[in-house]
Amino acid sequence: MLELLSCLLFVVAPLGLFIHELGHAAVGLWNGAERSHLSLGVGPLLCKCKIKRLTVHLHYIFIIGGHSLNEKEADFTSKQQAMISLGGPLSNAVCAAVLYMSDLPQQSHVLQLLYFFNLYLALVNMIPFRLKGRESDGCRFLKGLTKTMG
């Protein structure tokens, strides 16, 4: 039990968060972002890796949260903002679907945790809510969608 909890905290959760934030960054870059920053964790910077227009920042306490920032000289349109907000949950949903269809979670508890965690991130992040001044991806998606539709 302790092994599964450790695996969830130190492998599955950071990997699921990375997949989520990479989804936001990828859609941002696809929509013309000049630079995209993906950050995992909090605290002092552990390492930084730059791949073309994407910079990944890994912090010491990498098991707690993440965020991505897409930079573009001209503002993103409302439609682009909605798409970027959808990118994270969609990438988690695709990962969960691939794991589900592969039947691999039946063979490994780690992959089973990764499947459920990605499914959880996809579903929870699409619920529109505000918490302590921060908006969920679902809230940002609806805001961008309503601006697009007029």
From TrEMBL:
Bilayer topology: Multi-pass membrane protein
Transmembrane keyword on record: yes
Protein family membership: Belongs to the peptidase M50B family.
Keyword Protease among UniProt keywords: yes
Pfam family, one: Peptidase_M50
Location of this chain's protein in the cell: Membrane
Cofactor(s) the protein requires to work: Zn(2+)
Name of the molecule in the record: Site-2 protease family protein
Higher taxonomy: Bacteria, Bacillati, Bacillota, Bacilli, Bacillales
